[in-house]
Amino acid sequence: MIEIRDLVKSYGSGNSVVHALCGVDLNVAAGEVLMMMGPSGSGKTTLLSIMGCILRATSGSVKIDGLEVANLRENKLPEVRLKHFGFIFQGFNLFPALTARENVELALKLKGMSKKTAATLLEQVGLGDKLKSYPSDLSGGQKQRVAIARALAGDPPIILADEPTAALDSQSGLTVMEILSGLARERQRAVVVVTHDNRVLRFADRIVHIADGRVVDGELTEERAA
Ligand SMILES: Nc1ncnc2c1ncn2[C@@H]1O[C@H](COP(=O)(O)OP(=O)(O)OP(=O)(O)O)[C@@H](O)[C@H]1O
Ligand SMILES: [Mg+2]
Questions:
Q1: CATH number, domain 2-225
Q2: What are the φ and ψ backbone dihedral angles of 149, each rounded to 5 degrees?
Q3: Domain boundaries, the chain
Q4: Which of the residues in the chain have pLDDT under 50?
Q5: Does the Cβ of 42 fall within 6 Å of ligand 1?
Q6: Which ligand neighbours the alpha carbon of 39 most closely?
């Protein structure tokens, strides 16, 4: 689903240049949960952002479902983003003035879809009884489930999540990861999760360690290797 080759990303130029990624090779398959770990500043968010066509590579190849996006014109990227990706962030990024249902409806509208499926998406993450609640009336775990429902708008094949459980208590974090791994297993989504959270590692099919802008290994978890 995602094929990355020799990916380089540098920020800035001249004396202030930062080499965030220095030759990354990585594949992500449909149906797998890939977790990315590594120290602060190692390049995880940069890599996730380039995968999701939010940020452009300095050089290298990025193929999304067979389409080379590294050379695509800037004005083609929003279309690729909307069609292929759902994004989930640590801070939820919900609109506080909109209800749970309206937050999901907005995402559907952006993708040119009927608003009608908003309730179904929220039911899918166990929030069928919170359609009219505002983010301020929801717990952290519930807010993150709204964010997942929103990411699922338009049925994207790839879900990218940057520290989705970092702001959550253990139980909510586990619920969020159960939903994400269910999407991979039952609906063949490719799910990429950046995490520092050891509690959620058991949901990984594969863990990739990033250090200083490089992939330092990528082993199968025991369960999968068996
Ligand atoms: N917009 C930017 N401009 C300049 N440098 C940046 C920018 N974004 C990130 N960097 C630098 O690139 C490197 C990688 O940053 P990145 O955010 O990808 O790390 P990370 O692994 O996600 O870290 P964390 O775990 O703290 O979120 C760091 O040295 C960072 O300072
Ligand atoms: Mg980061």
A1: 3.40.50.300
A2: -60, -40
A3: 2-225
A4: none
A5: yes
A6: 1
